[in-house]
Amino acid sequence: MSFKLHRPTDPMQKAEVFGWDNPRIQAAIGATIQKQVGTSATLGPVIRQDLNPEVYEVFVKQFPLIDMIEKRESNGLVDAFERQLNYSQQSEDTPLTISETGTVVDDANSYVQDTCNIAVFASRRGASLKSVFGARAGGAAIDVAGREVAGGLLKIAHDFQTEAFRMQNVTATGAGSTTNLGVYDANGFKGFRYLTEFMSPATNIVTVDVTTAGGWTAASQTVTNALSEVVNTILDLGGNPDMCFGSLSSREYLRQEAYAKTTIFGTAGQRTEVIPGVYLPSFTLGNGEDMPYYGIPGKSVGSYSLGDGHTYQDIYIADTSTMGLVWLGAPTPTLIEVPLASDGTLRKLTIPYWMCSVEFGVPSYVGKVRLKVA
């Protein structure tokens, strides 16, 4: 048996000389594939945390809420934290005064230990090599694989919002998509709906009938007044509510009420800047202050029944300084690149994933207006 003494530059010729299993041959073939397709071609999946800044830029456009609440790393598979029950051990109608030389009275917030589960959101996205090469050969400025990744990020954003605003993970009893409990999800975490129904004071919920039979009109200002009532209740408890969350259809009631008011008293279409460069639609309460409204895709909030034959939707009010987005791995979604053809198909595979949860430090600072819509 004779061996060629030269080292060919073509990977296929090298493979004939040194063998297909040679690590250098594998690396050379991988480099060629990477050059042609524009992806990593290692021997195993690659977690592309170097792309997190670019992923974040795409994700925050679809999900600006991530930029508005504090983010911190989870302290375990289930994050443990202290949930505040009250801001004082003393009765609020008993002032803590002391004499000129008296001893300062001990006082403190009251807490209880709590946990929130870290949910895993992921979506495998694939673009066939035929579509990638076809788009490139046709001269079309279309990043097929990139568009799939963007779709995966949008899916994660919607999934997270469904968990945060509708689902719960405490008990399956009576849970379903048409109840106020929301859909049970053992791998998820408690969201706004569970929090307001079972952990916030009952006075933090105000129900408004916005049906035709209920006599609602934009001039009645009933939704705005109800929001003002919830805000005042939270203020009395010591909170400082600064954001509303609800479906786009629920926001429409506020928009119509705000339009009916601003056409007489002010300029319609005003905006409130939440953080530099990010604007959200806002509405004006009865006493004149503005509050930004974060619109959520309708299915991510969901309607429900209380068993009385009527349909309801929620508009949540919260003090965002007492909310936290806890994460494992990275504070934003990350991409995993899967080697080409590893599953037997000629696809460029990418898995966007995010491990995160929302914790509510002070549930009494969260409330809602329950709209009877049908």
Summary, kept brief:
With 374 residues, the protein is α+β, with helices and mostly antiparallel strands.
Q: What is the percentage of strand-forming residues?
A: 25-35%
Order of secondary-structure elements: HHEHEEEEEHHHEHEHEEEHEEEEEE
Number of helices: 9
Radius of gyration: 27 Å
Question: What do these coordinates show?
Answer:
The protein is an alpha+beta fold and 374 residues long. Helix content is 29%, strand content 28%. It contains 9 helices and 17 strands. The strands form 3 sheets. Strands 7, 8, 9, 10, 11, 12, 13 and 17 form an 8-stranded mixed beta sheet that branches. Strands 1, 2, 5, 6, 14, 15 and 16 form a 7-stranded mixed beta sheet that branches. It has a two-stranded antiparallel ribbon with strand order 3-4. A hairpin with a 5-residue loop joins strand 10 and strand 11. Helix 1 (11-18) runs antiparallel to helix 2 (23-37). The longest helix is centred in the middle third of the chain and has 22 residues, at 144-165. It is globular and about 85 Å long.
Q: Can you lay out the helices and strands and say which pair or pack?
A:
Blueprint: H1 11-18, H2 23-37, E1 46-48, H3 52-62, E2 70-73, E3 78-86, E4 110-117, E5 119-122, E6 125-128, H4 129-137, H5 144-165, H6 192-198, E7 205-209, H7 222-237, E8 243-247, H8 248-265, E9 271-275, E10 278-284, E11 290-296, H9 298-301, E12 304-305, E13 311-318, E14 323-328, E15 334-338, E16 347-360, E17 366-372
Parallel strand pairs: 2-14, 7-17, 8-11
Antiparallel strand pairs: 1-15, 3-4, 5-16, 6-16, 8-13, 9-10, 10-11, 12-13, 13-17, 14-16, 15-16
Helix pairs in contact: 1-2, 3-5
